[in-house]
From TrEMBL:
Record InterPro entries: KR_dom, NAD(P)-bd_dom_sf, SDR_fam
Cross-referenced Pfam families: adh_short
Protein family (similarity comment): Belongs to the short-chain dehydrogenases/reductases (SDR) family.
Protein name: Short-chain type dehydrogenase/reductase
Domain Ketoreductase: 7-192
Keyword Oxidoreductase: yes
Keywords noted in UniProt: Oxidoreductase
Gene3D superfamilies assigned to the protein according to its UniProt record, in alphabetical order: NAD(P)-binding Rossmann-like Domain (3.40.50.720)
Transmembrane segments: none
Keyword Chaperone on entry: no
Amino acid sequence: MDSLAGKVAIITGAASGIGRATALSLAARGTSILVADINADAAKTVAGEIETAGGDAIAQPCDITCDNAFEALKDKALDRFGRVDIVMNNAGGLTRGLPEHVPLDEWRRVLDVNLLSVVRSNLAFLPLLIAQGSGHIVNTASFAGLMTYAFDRLAYSASKAAVVQISEGLALYLRPKGIGVTVLCPGPVKTNIMASLRTFGPPTDTRGPGPAFDLMEPAEVGEQVADAILANSFMLPTHAQIRDHLIDRAGDWDGFIDRQIADPHIVARAADA
Ligand SMILES: NC(=O)c1ccc[n+]([C@@H]2O[C@H](COP(=O)([O-])OP(=O)(O)OC[C@H]3O[C@@H](n4cnc5c(N)ncnc54)[C@H](O)[C@@H]3O)[C@@H](O)[C@H]2O)c1
């Protein structure tokens, strides 16, 4: 995409964290924003922040687990702005528990929020973007979808790995049609995501990716997303260490697993978590 000025973006989970930061970054570069979130009040606040800063935004409550949610977002954007250029499938949720403790219903919930929401979005928006022969899709996955550093968040990692794969397939399909695809794979970012964390089974030590990964400010991620759309780049890992870990794993996958077991990067003991 040559410029973000005059474009229209729909961002789910835009009331907080990475979604909000991206909304602010795109708006500052002239994009009109549909702030979509299950938290209607917080979505209104973000739309207000954008307007106060001189941008153009509306808030729209939505639950991405509803089958018609994305059709409603599309209708709202076309009604208010007359076009859709950028779709960012960003809202997501986290769950924690040992593999033998996370129940099937929780797996279904996490896959519904993190994975099937992307499928719903594709069904609603691909016909429109393909017909206009332009646009950009940003799917928020996670570095947890590229490499596994913890065994107590498998539903989350699996859902995000699936988002990476779907995104790569979409890039193959859509790039020749003039539509860009970016998969955002954040490392640790300072957001409210832990507030929605659900835990199953007895408390366990919480494994993290290790001290090499800084806790990044969401504003930095928002700027990275805006730049990736302009550059039409597919893979967007927020932290340089993600690439280093992937190269390390590709060279010696067994050694990568053994090194993680030996150095478990426990960031919080069960009693403190
Ligand atoms: N923060 C991190 O360290 C990190 C790392 C990797 C990936 N991510 C991913 O980034 C994305 C954004 O998360 P964040 O960290 O900004 O968290 P956040 O909690 O700050 O923001 C998530 C937003 O999504 C909204 N939301 C949740 N469920 C929804 C639903 N069903 N329908 C509509 N909106 C819903 C929430 O209300 C919230 O405003 C998620 O997909 C998350 O998995 C975050």
